[in-house]
Amino acid sequence: MAETSTPAIDGRASASASAPTWSETRDALDRRLEQVLADVEETWFRLAPGVAPGVIDDDLPMLLRRLVQSGGKRIRPAMVHWGWLAATAAPGRRADQHATVVEAAAALELLHVFALVHDDVMDESASRRGRPTTHVGVAALHRRAGGRGSDQRFGESIAILVGDLAHAEADHLAAGLPPEVRSTYRTTLLELVQGQRLDLTGAAAGRRDLAHARSVAEAKSGAYTVQRPLQMGVQVAGGGLEIQHALLRYGRHAGAAFALRDDLLGLWGDPGLTGKPVGDDLVAGKPTVVLALAAERLSGHWRRVVDGRSVVPLDPHEVAGVLDAMVEAGVRDEVEDMIANEVRVADEALDDGQVAPEAAEGLRAMARSLAWREA
């Protein structure tokens, strides 16, 4: 079962006196993101001076700023930081490496904004972090202004453009990274898109097999959130294949714990903390590990509701009943046990002496924060 006490996801576990702490890296990241946002705004309005957007109150750069500054956890940047510190003993470490760490972290944070905005459009999500999603908020502005055409289509189109702007700036930053790091960034993006495709086609096909659900979770969440950012940090430090392999093992299991907790929060989380309504993934028939287990464990009416064979979407009024049936069948407890096991195996990956001790301490805290967070 889950542990009850968790360190903060942005915990202050410090590195050696000569290396920046995560807190210092985060502060540097925020400054760099502010520079990027200011540059985007300056360039945008220089290219089209005096051109009012119409219908929407704020133009795309301001919508992007709002998303970047909306209070995200900065998990991916944190993983770049800890991956870099994990390889501090690697030969050839230079004093200017921290600037590269920050640049890679900024690229990943902007990539994350792109992913969230486009994911919300594809999932038709109404809220994110307790606020209306971009496409929903813009659609409301369209209605208020009496805009022509479909307000929903307009909102989705503007949101896609905001995501495209974030993606373009992420790629611009990534273009200046060392070749090996840039290659991993590209792999990250391909895995992210592949995971989203698996998610969409899996939902459309009614997939409920556990192997497919795990593949979606690893590509959409595990690799993109933990594994690849860690690998990029190690590569900035000049770390070799052995430490990369150790952290990829850690990342595979810490990322799995993150994805499993995400699934549980989407069903049993507090909307006041998660900022998202309960049951969206269930209604949409997303091919999650939780739903795959439910299709195996439930019986009777509830089995027919979740087994993926029906072409009729789940009635939102039945969500509470399905959740109760899952709890009674032991699905939630089984997933909690899976999370605990993933954290244990992630810990073991840090025990082979490859990872610098101060980084191992930070990574252990991160794994627990990812696995037992409440939002």
Distance between the termini: 18 Å
- Give the ordered list of helices and strands: HHHHEEHHHHHHHHHHHH
The H-level CATH homologous superfamily, spelled out, is Farnesyl Diphosphate Synthase
As a percent range, the share of helical residues equals 55-70%
How many domain units? 1
Number of helices: 16
Low-confidence stretches: 1-8, 10-17
> Could you tell me the strand content as a percent range?
under 5%
Describe this structure as you would to a colleague.
With about 375 residues, the protein is an all-alpha fold. It has one domain (about 20-370): Farnesyl Diphosphate Synthase, CATH 1.10.600. Helices cover about 70% and strands about 0% of the residues. It is built from 16 helices and two strands. The chain has helices at about 20-45, 60-70, 75-85, 95-125, 135-145, 150-175, 180-205, 210-235, 240-270, 270-275, 280-285, 290-295, 300-305, 320-330, 330-350, 355-370; strands spanning about 125-130, 130. Strands 1-2 form a two-stranded antiparallel sheet. Helix 3 (about 75-85) packs antiparallel against helix 4 (about 95-125), helix 5 (about 135-145) packs across helix 6 (about 150-175) and helix 15 (about 330-350) packs antiparallel against helix 16 (about 355-370). The longest helix has 28 residues, at about 210-235. It is flat, with a radius of gyration of 21 Å. Mean pLDDT is about 90; it is low at about 1-10 and about 10-15.
